[in-house]
Fold this sequence. Notes:
By secondary structure, the protein is of the alpha/beta class. It has 12 helices and 10 strands. An 8-stranded mixed barrel has the order 1-2-3-6-7-8-9-10, surrounded by 5 helices. It has a two-stranded antiparallel sheet with strand order 4-5. Strand 2, helix 5 and strand 3 (157-160) form a beta-alpha-beta unit. The chain is globular and about 60 Å long.
Amino acid sequence: xxxxxxxxxxxxxxVTGLVACGGxxxxxxxxxxEGTDESSGASxxxxxxxxxxxxxxxxxxxxxxxxxxTMTAVEKAQAERAAATIKDVEIKxxxxxxxxAFTFVKNMKVGWNLGNTLxxxxxxxxxxxxxxxxxxWGNPVTTQKMIDEVKKAGFETIRIPITWRGHVTxxxxxxxxxxxxxxxxxxxxxxxxxxxxxxxxxxxxxxxxPENGYYPSTENYERSEAYLSAIWTAMAETFKDYxxxxxxxxxxxxxxxxxxxxxxxxxGASECQDxxxxxxxxxxxxxxxxRASGGNNAQRYLxxxxxxxxxxxxxxxxxxxxxxxxxxxxxxxxxxxxPYNFALQSPxxxxxxxxxxxxxxxxxKDIDYLMNSLYKKYVSQGIPVVIGEFGAREKNFNLQDRxxxxxxxxxxxxxxx
Length: 417
């Protein structure tokens, strides 16, 4: 079981990550190389445990055949890993403002998301032990050993996505109480990373729900603000004595779920304008609650997304950073699986590609646009940016292409900070 747990954990390394503009990897090529080793090794370890044994303790012919197929896949992965190379890439470095905030973000380097774990949920429904939600999407319970392995792999930062739906109760008078059981579990996992001297990002994740969470619209604003205020009040109190290695992120990809604009922000649409303003107000409430809680929260670094945490959501003039009693402690939060057709689009969908070339503008132009846009609007103006999610899914044993992608993506971020 130990072997399988580690395999599942490390396999996620090449799926999603975290990088900062205004401070990325110290050595992009080395980081990409480490990611390659971990991902390929994880695939091999996982593959060797796929075979099952029937009740008599003897493998059936069907099971043996599955094992042979699995081993063939493992052999392919091993050959792919052996042939992989780290390419050099030269990208023009921009002038980066000086300041504590940029030093802080630079020290975060490249990070890792603890995905599909504390963020897992059953649409806010819990039956029995609420801690079982951590396993409801198929991942194992997070342990100190797992986080130790993440640190050993070379990651300085971990993002811990957390869903709170199902872990809050609403009284008849409308007051909202956060589960101490769940809050204590969150604290326990955070402490695993604290024990490794890591930077840690915690948030509210899959909590967009017009009935049982928040929803960024004027119609739902009052209840949304109450919901998020209760959660951040509880979190701020719990973690106010933690040092600056702990970072709070207000929201995850706030958007109008179920609408035409869910993944398609249109600045000219009245619905998007309303949503963007609601997100600004929720971000302001978040900052005010954290600062008022005292302790180290008075000066804690805070991450704030625009609509969908997308580039468009951050670049629009409809997005604004909150006012803050602390100086230069706000970070723009962006997610960017770019270029989409390579990084995230399903291989079965039209337009998907499994190839990426550092030397081809068709591969790199979207990354260039992303990094240049964030640099011009924020970094050059003294505002740091953290890309909390990026990555590339495996397609047809394309390890070399994904390796090239990571080298170019991380190097591009580093060149802007």
